[in-house]
């Protein structure tokens, strides 16, 4: 699904590693039977298919890509650093990402003062953890690409909160600027107008998964 | 928390690997401030503390134990097998475990016919994947211990559904018998009466985390 942040995680890996592939988009509200029966019983995207093998769950997909195409490996090779990144991703999941859809809905009405505080609290944990230009060090790594899809979307939320500002999260703001310059990020980038069209349809309860297509 | 299935995952690893440790239980509805500030910002158990380092998220905790105490390693060393186990755990999370608390509540009223079908559908995926005595092969491994806490609880649900029966899931039923014989499972086992006491208090909206103590 073109607007799915989880699928984007894997598209970013594919682009950063330069792996040739074919993309098949599915309609998430009307999932094709072949998808549920043959690809992923849980019904979620992304799914990678290679030589008849199915790999699902965005994080597993990305680890799989680093395993199957070990050149330009994005996943930390040091197991302790890998665990640190997994824990940080879990903090993000539970303290930031979990508020994302409420945030999107609230952005339609402009009233997200209560959400904003929770959001900001979670973001501060990431801000503190970002001690180098990227979460992966001097170059973007797995955690950078796995976090990015939400940050790309944050920046398109209308009247978005102060919590995401340079004043509150200077390191994250600079990291976002750096990320926007990455060729993989550019290759997978979705323009603001398309997100906006999708978000409006999503908030109205009838997501337009084909927004912007022909 | 003594009744938390996620904390039990890590207790099982500690027992299976024979690692000396001290356990501190916390009240999940009235979390101590020191826990949230110093141990895990997300506020969940388990948390491992070693030499001042904090590790949280049950799966990360268990991988950490295998890393810090490499003898009798439970996590698959083959990255592809490890990914297969992660995907299977995700199928379990989303197709079985996600219904667990609704199931518990329904068990109080005896009406879980609709849930039972969903539950059974997810269990069939595990049944199919269990081609050896244990998910880890001839001996229990990471996936066996990471799944077990829910199966221990399933067997204590009153009037539990046919979906969990030997007739429907013969391999899983035999696996459960084998798991019950494992020293680590015995060491962390909670008797039916205690679960029952806890489940009743949980369903009534006032979980008794100290059930059976003092």
Description:
Chains A, B: It catalyses: RX + glutathione = an S-substituted glutathione + a halide anion + H(+); L-dehydroascorbate + 2 glutathione = glutathione disulfide + L-ascorbate; methylarsonate + 2 glutathione + H(+) = methylarsonous acid + glutathione disulfide + H2O. Chains A, B: GO terms for molecular function: glutathione dehydrogenase (ascorbate) activity; glutathione transferase activity; methylarsonate reductase activity. The structure is a homodimer of 214-residue chains. Chain A has 214 residues and is mainly alpha-helical. Chain A has 2 domains: 5-68, Glutaredoxin (3-Layer(aba) Sandwich), CATH 3.40.30.10; 79-188, Up-down Bundle (Glutathione S-transferase Yfyf (Class Pi), Chain A, domain 2). Chain A is 55% helix and 4% strand. Chain A has helices at 5-17, 33-39, 58-68, 79-95, 100-109, 113-129, 142-154, 170-180, 183-188, 192-203; strands spanning 47-50, 53-56. A two-stranded antiparallel sheet of chain A has the order 1-2. In chain A, α4 packs antiparallel against α6 and α4 (79-95) runs parallel beside α7 (142-154). The model of chain A has no long low-confidence stretch (mean pLDDT 88). The A-B interface holds A 41-42, 44, 55-57, 60, 63-64, 67, 79-80, 83, 86-87, 90-91, 94-95, 125 and B 41-42, 44, 55-57, 60, 63-64, 67, 79-80, 83, 86-87, 90-91, 94-95, 125.
Task: Please specify the SSE layout and strand pairing.
Two copies of one chain form a homodimer.
Chain A: H1 5-17, H2 33-39, E1 47-50, E2 53-56, H3 58-68, H4 79-95, H5 100-109, H6 113-129, H7 142-154, H8 170-180, H9 183-188, H10 192-203
Antiparallel strand pairs in A: 1-2
């Amino acid at each position: 699904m073109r607007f799915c942040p989880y699928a984007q995680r894997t598209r970013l890996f594919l682009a950063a590693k330069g792996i040739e592939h074919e993309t098949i988009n599915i309609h998430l509200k009307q999932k094709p039977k072949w998808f549920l029966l043959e690809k992923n019983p849980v019904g979620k995207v992304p799914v990678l298919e290679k030589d008849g093998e199915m790999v699902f769950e965005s994080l597993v997909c990305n680890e799989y890509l680093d395993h199957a195409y070990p050149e330009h490996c994005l996943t930390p090779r040091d197991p302790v650093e890998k665990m640190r990144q997994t824990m940080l991703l879990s903090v993000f999941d539970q303290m930031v990402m979990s508020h994302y859809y409420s945030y999107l809905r609230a952005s339609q009405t402009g009233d997200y003062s209560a959400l904003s505080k929770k959001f900001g609290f979670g973001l501060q944990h990431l801000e503190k953890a970002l001690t180098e230009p990227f979460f992966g060090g001097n170059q973007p790594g797995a955690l950078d690409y796995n976090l990015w899809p939400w940050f790309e979307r944050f920046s398109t939320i209308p009247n978005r909160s102060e919590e995401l500002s340079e004043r509150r999260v200077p390191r994250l703001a600079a990291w976002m600027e750096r990320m926007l310059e990455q060729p993989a990020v550019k290759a997978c980038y979705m323009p603001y107008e398309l997100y906006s069209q999708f978000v409006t349809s999503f908030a109205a309860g009838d997501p337009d998964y084909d927004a912007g297509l022909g």
